[in-house]
Amino acid sequence: MSRIVTVGLVQQTCSDDKEATFAKTAAGIRDAAKRGADLVVLQELHAGPYFCQTEDPAHFAHAESIPGPATNRLAALARETAVVLVASLFERRAPGLYHNTAVIFERDGSIAGRYRKMHIPEDPGFNEKFYFTPGDLGFTPIETSVARLGVLVCWDQWYPEAARLMALAGAEILVYPTAIGWVPEDPDEERARQRDAWITIQRGHAIANQIPAVAVNRVGFEPRPGHPEDGIAFFGGSFVAGPQGEILATASTDREETLIVSLDLDRTEEVRQLWPFFRDRRIDAYDGLLNRYLE
Fold first, then answer.
1. What are the structural domains, with CATH classification, of the chain?
2. pLDDT digits (tens, 9 = 90+) for 52-96
3. Which of 99, 202, 204, 215 has a CA positioned 20 to 30 A from the CA of residue 241?
4. Which residues are known catalytic residues?
5. Rounded to whole angstroms, how far apart are CA atoms 39 and 120?
């Protein structure tokens, strides 16, 4: 008998109206649950606009401890809907110490675990190093009642090492809350290349590790504070890939949407028997991966 997990991906827009944004998040979770989801994944920093477009110390006031008010509200939703919930939050760990943290809630609202984003970008419009300290919890899957989740966050999705270590530790699904989009000066051909690369790299992680990958992205244009003509157009396109990289479902690129996908976790065993990547790994020859660069 196949082991099926139904996943809900909540792709939404965000605004400065915190309550309105949370209401949309809650509606997405409830909709996913009504449609049979066992596991619901929210996008990166879903509680409001992507504030990392600028470096502004005022944004630190939005960070919260874990547990705290935000996790309490999300825990109540997980308990109400009886789903396992993955939510990305701005964590205040201590004075001057902040993380981009994914919190995983069990069906009863308890916290099953957390993952602190390890790879922190610093690019035009993505000034995350100003806000976030790199994670220190390692690449450790979170055990839940539906599956063992390899939760990573956004920029982590470009690193095969992160996905591999999650898989080696027993992750059954790779989960990527995401905030990725285009800036106004990107021409159409560059936009196409970026989105294709984003999809391809995560399909590659699914193939290389022979487990499904779930990517949930923001959608909609978010202006840069003080410069309404500038900003980031988050391109949505949330998707799920199976253990051979097959695209199982894809959301729209221009609207809010709750995507529902059923995953057969027993396929991992079948695929690994036919394509024995793990058997044939040359673990005696990979020492160079621990170097920044090989001169």
1. 4-290 (3.60.110.10)
2. 999 999 999 999 999 999 999 999 999 999 999 999 999 999 999
3. 99
4. 44, 117, 154
5. 26
